[in-house]
Amino acid sequence: MLCGTPEDMKSGAVEAARTILTGLHEVMASRSNAQAKLNTVVEVIGESLNSEVCSVYLLREGMLELFATRGLAQEAVHVTRMAIGEGLVGMIADQIETLNLAEAASHPDFSYRPETGEDKYHSFAGVPIVRRERAVGVLCVQHVEPRRYEEIEIEALQTVAMVLSELIVNADLIDEEGTGAISAQTGPEQLRGLTLVKGLASGVAVYHQPRVTIEQIVAEDTEAERQRVIMAFDKMREQIDRMTSQAEFGLGGEHEEVLATYRMFAYDEGWTRRINEAIDSGLTAEAAIERVQQRTRMRMRQIDDPLLADRMHDLEDLANRLLRIVSGQIGTAASMGLRNDAILIARNLGPAELLEYDRRRLKGVILEEGSLTSHVVIVARAMGIPVLGRVRGLRGVVREGDPLLLDADQGSVAVRPSTGVIEAFETRFAKSRERQAVYAGLRDVLPTTRDGTRIQVMINAGLRDDITNLCMTGADGIGLFRTEFQFLVSATLPQRERQTRLYRDVMEGAGDKPVVFRTVDIGGDKTLPYLRHDDGEGEENPAMGWRALRVALERDGLLKVQARALLEAAAGRTLNVMFPMVAEPWEFDAAKEVFEGQLAYLRKRKKVLPDVIRYGVMLEVPALVEQLDLLAPKISFLSIGTNDLTQFLFAADRSNAKLAERYDWLSPAILRFLRRVVRELDGHNVDIGVCGEMGGRRLEALALLGLGIRRLSITPASVGPIKELLGHIDLGPITAAMEGWLAAPPPNLREVMTAWASERGIPVD
Ligand code: PEP
Ligand code: MG
After folding, report:
1. Is there a smaller number of Cβ atoms within 10 Å at the N or the C end of the chain?
2. Which ligand minimizes its atom distance to the CA of 643?
């Protein structure tokens, strides 16, 4: 093997790896059969590393089989077989770990195989041959002399193992049976997460940011590869710097933290150096990045620290980004189009990114992050797409194209499911469809409590297509039309005519039913590339920053255009317009004034005007409650946006995955606050409702009814379940119970309410 000074050895190892790669390249290009190729491979490796034994074990029928060897008895080839976990070879494959032993026989897992004639060899080093994070074989070297191998020798072996992993698949080094064995190794798995949007779906895994396929591993021109990597690093750093300055990255994620880590990795000298060393050993830029990544993965696997695991995801993201840049395989899966029923996999997504997908093919979404009220989740809910969030280890387990069964009702996903799991899923799916049919059957039932109070059940919407949801659910109208969705799906600021057309279409589609248009709520996790902060600075805290009405009032051109569009679209009808994020009454006055100004303008031009204009506000900022008495006489309606309201009440970012499960909507703080709002408005002629996600959940809706709320605007999929719920409720008892619970809150109101409902046969799950 290699010897001399550390520097000599380092360059020796690089040289050895290089010779091997060149040798392997030639072997693979030859026309010999798979076995002959493998025989030559072990010779080339053994010779270049000056090693007495070099053997390759490959996975076949679930066993590691000696496929080729230089140095061990040839009779053992295809005879010696080890189970995963058995002997040193089996252990390497099982743990996906490198072993480096001066005295192999003294290792507790050593399993002596007399047919190989290996007893005279003392030292042993083996590395797993990994494909898509699974061991598909083992490459090992042995020596008579008892010695530990140098780190750089191991490195050379690992580089070679990586090349072998590609060759195994690309050059038919294993037969069909063997391929079967590889997939047997990547068997069924079950992952758990947090239900963000309920529902069931089956489809193949599609990575939002697809993994790059490496087409060429061995470099033809090392200098050229080096240049490619330098350029890719420059470009990536530029991107990261831009993201940092614009704060547009990580929609709905822990932006700051992620970005800081990204920058740290992007500028990490060690990372660049290791990639360059891998290129020196003869790899292409792509293969070198992947090689270094593989090594990091192996190291990280040995460290059991969730924080580090998180950082590993960041590095994976970044390495993938670098790979995409260097290989030119840019663009998300949406830009390539979905070919089958698909379940999208991502760390996190922005609402606009989700909307780029073909709605007919996109069946589900699985996120590593995500929270109930992040906008991507709201959009998915509106699209009727189940979403599972906070799935740990997702990207380590799921591979592109894997069949998935997503059961967001139970918070789980089956990866590469077995026949039994598929059958059980089908049964559940059929049941779920039956339930949907029951809900669909409630379409024409008026939402009324059992004791006869009519409740307004409306839907939240934002797209032209959503109008079909109104017809399908039989809801009382659209209680929240998020006008910013049109802005989110558009590459440029939508012109007035386009806005007018959309609003008119929606009103026409709704017929006699009311539609409440909310003026644009841009900002927070709804960023628009074409509408940025004037000073170009990113915001530290966008949810509490320059968003919603604040943007609209500052850029009153934006609000003016929207006001004109809404007023024109509502000609001869009732226009319900609602302002988001009002914190003080004067903000409402200012927004209304913009509308009145446009109304005067249209009147002067003798245009047909709306018959009635009803102005309302969203209650999302707690401060507004302190001035409700001043605001109430000015408004026709008030809609409580519990998504934002709760994030501000608890000072808990609604899109921060870490806080997703921390606070409960059924907390006394929220419920008492809502009760106060209802009481403050008592006696004023203000129509009060709730349009946050809270109202679409049955137990929460029960609580809201107990507080006196009589209008809910909810996600379309919840209309059926809520109508069903209403048919089981008498308002008297729930109102009294709520009074009691809020006077002396139990430690866990959710549990208490669930029990209360179940005793009375009220369906709340
Ligand atoms: C809310 O904040 O509750 C709400 C309905 O508005 P959005 O989710 O669009 O911010
Ligand atoms: Mg809001």
Report:
1. C
2. 1
